[in-house]
Specification:
five-stranded parallel beta sheet, single chain, six-stranded mixed beta sheet, Nucleoside Triphosphate Pyrophosphohydrolase, 7 helices, Rossmann fold, 293 residues, alpha/beta
Length: 293
């Protein structure tokens, strides 16, 4: 029996390599219940993330291969739920100027955020468009065929060039500075590393890196400046590293080389020269000198 709403609207992400039986069953159910069908694919504001690896066109073509006569439109994410709801209503009306619509919501889907004019219903757990486990399964499979490799290349080339944020810290104790050396290098460097998504700010990241690489606690962090680092790993890449340099006072702890640091050493600051530092950190030593440490 057909629903009283003429229009069936499915909203989802469909971030999968192919439609599963559950997806197909869901779409077939909506087709059976309504005279007109439209699928809106949520479009994230960032490219190629773990949660949203596939772009709009890729997902649209995947669905059209199985359901060639269904209308499939994009629906951009919005920071405000009310704005998102109004945009959804507007796009529905652009396709169907008259008629009642019923919006199908999956588990953990948009239903709680939607404040628009149309009725919503929660579908049975036929398919879960936000199933992160499906994406994880694909992420750990290496497929030894050209299509897999072509997909990886496509994904890499459809990203914005990235800047990786790092932090470095000049750890001070009276007239000394603690520096580290990596196993494959003869010269020393400032203690530091990549900012982690779990860090609340760059200062916290610097304190964490100091603890992880030297075992010491630091405090009284002072901003020195930022610089692009000529890291050998990214020298021939489009992506680059930009670091933020801090000074910090030694608070406590027995300094010991840890993590990827092979050796740490206290240096008399007045005896340090540019030639004591690895090439990529010489620019940071210049920043310190200009700040009259």
């Amino acid at each position: 029996m057909k629903n009283t709403q003429e229009i069936g609207v499915i909203i989802g992400r469909f971030q999968v390599a192919e439609l599963y039986a559950g997806h197909i069953e869901l779409i077939q159910k909506v087709i059976h219940n309504h005279k007109q069908i439209v699928i809106f694919l949520n479009v994230a504001p960032v490219l190629v993330t773990k949660k949203n690896p596939l772009d709009f066109i890729t997902r649209k073509e995947m669905i059209l291969k199985v359901f060639p006569n269904i209308t499939i439109l994009s629906l951009p994410n919005e920071p405000d739920d009310n704005d998102w709801s109004r945009e959804l209503d507007k796009r529905i009306r652009e396709v169907f100027s008259i008629g009642n619509a019923l919006l199908y919501s999956g588990r953990d889907s948009f239903r709680s955020a939607y404040t628009g004019i149309f009725e919503t219903t929660e579908i049975e757990q036929i398919a879960d468009f936000s199933d992160v486990e499906m994406l994880k399964d694909f992420s750990i499979e290496t497929k030894a065929n050209p299509n897999f490799r072509a997909g990886v290349i496509f994904a890499v080339h459809n990203q914005y060039p990235k800047v990786f944020p790092t932090v470095d810290v000049a750890i001070m104790r009276d007239d000394e500075m603690l520096l580290g050396r990596k196993s494959h290098q003869a010269l020393f460097r400032f203690i530091g590393g990549f900012v982690d998504p779990t860090d609340d700010n760059f200062e916290q990241a610097a304190q964490r890196e100091a603890q992880e690489e030297t075992g010491v606690e630091v405090g009284n962090l002072q901003y020195v400046g930022t610089a692009k680092i000529d890291d050998w790993r990214y020298r021939h890449e489009t992506d680059k590293i930009i670091t933020t340099l801090f000074t910090a006072d030694y608070i406590s702890g027995n300094a010991k080389a840890q993590d990827d640091i092979a050796e740490i050493k206290w240096f008399k600051i007045n005896n340090l020269t540019t030639e004591d530092f690895v090439v990529e950190h010489q620019v940071l030593w210049g920043l310190l000198k200009r700040n009259k440490i």
